[in-house]
Design brief:
Rossmann fold, single chain, about 325 residues, alpha/beta, 12 helices
Length: about 325
């Protein structure tokens, strides 16, 4: 085991894949000579050469178009979009090409060995262009998988599973936790299952659900609730698409109460899909309305970031409201 941060865990996973698979190629804006803006790919070009870890032009549509072609020819393509906020120029390539390539060819061709890595979310005073959480846009697209880790152990295991999965995966990395989240991570190769949520903490009174950096915020809210005698069950969704309905529904059936939280704005966020599905699955077991604690329906602010965020205090208020309904 090694004590490393989330960024180092991602680098470790990339190193393992590139060492075992000489068709694995890592590329993106500035990823080569100095490891990208966050240094996630540090040392990989020196170790594997400029033909396998290299810089691309500053054009996201071109990065993913190139990645689609590379994956279609059998390479393991690992593309980095420097910030999730800048994934939108590549939106057409992802939702109309990556996601549909297998379907439109009748399974004769695919880009299943494509993984798109990108840092998402706020908490770094990045303002409106470097703080967004766009997972819901891609969750609406069949043919993709969408994965979000919460800590270094999860990041390494989920990234290895994502790269080896036979479907295109968008891997959202919580940039606020890149260096802030540190933990024990096995030095050897391991995978964590995609499409499977994890029950982080058992509880009996209310179910709390989040993903990525928001899990830590939910845990803080649960600690406040525990001081009031409220037993919270905490679930990390881990995979947005496909998501683990069974684990969440089983928990809500047990507790009868449910709060889901996301960094992204409230309207049409993935929390809404979760709430609708769990309401349908658990209607007769619910003791209170399902609560969503999310970002605001406004561009991500700079000066008012703390007011915008779905913090532990807002989640704690939702827990109390739900418990006393």
């Amino acid at each position: 085991m090694a004590q490393i941060n989330l960024l180092q865990a991602i680098n470790d996973a990339l190193d393992i894949v590139m060492a075992e698979n000489d068709r694995a190629v890592c590329f993106g804006e500035d990823v080569g000579h100095f490891g990208g803006v966050f240094r996630a790919t540090s040392g990989l070009q020196e170790k594997y050469g400029k033909s396998r870890c290299f810089n691309t032009p500053l054009v996201e549509q071109g990065v993913i178009g190139f990645a689609n072609g590379l994956a279609a020819q059998g390479s393991t393509a690992i593309a980095e979009i420097q910030f999730a906020d800048y994934i939108f120029p590549a939106f057409d390539q992802i939702v109309n090409e990556s996601a549909k390539f297998r379907y439109r060819s009748g399974n004769e061709f695919d880009v299943g060995k494509l993984t798109i890595r990108t840092p998402y979310g706020g908490g770094i005073a990045g303002g409106l262009y470097h703080s967004q959480s766009p997972e819901a846009y891609f969750a609406h697209t069949p043919g993709l998988k969408v994965v979000v880790p919460r800590n270094p152990y999860q990041a390494k295991g989920l990234l290895l599973a994502s790269i080896r999965d036979d479907n295109p995966v968008i891997f959202f990395e919580p940039k606020r936790l890149y260096r802030a989240s540190v933990g024990e991570v096995p030095e050897e190769d391991y995978e964590l299952p995609l499409g499977k949520a994890e029950v982080v903490q058992k509880g009996s009174d209310i179910t709390l659900l989040a993903w990525g950096a928001q899990v830590e915020i939910v845990e803080k809210a649960a600690a406040l609730a525990a001081s009031d005698g409220i037993s919270c069950e905490i679930i990390d969704l881990r995979t947005i698409l496909p998501w683990d309905i069974e684990t969440v529904a089983n928990s809500v059936t047990k507790t009868g109460r449910f709060v889901v939280s996301q960094e992204a704005p409230l309207t049409a966020g993935f929390a809404s899909e979760i709430a609708a599905t769990i309401q349908q699955a658990c209607f007769l077991h619910l003791e209170a309305p399902i609560a969503r604690v999310c970002g605001m329906d406004t561009p991500y602010p700079l000066a008012l970031e703390k007011e915008y965020a779905a913090d532990h205090l807002k989640i704690f208020e939702a827990i109390k409201t739900t418990m006393t309904y």
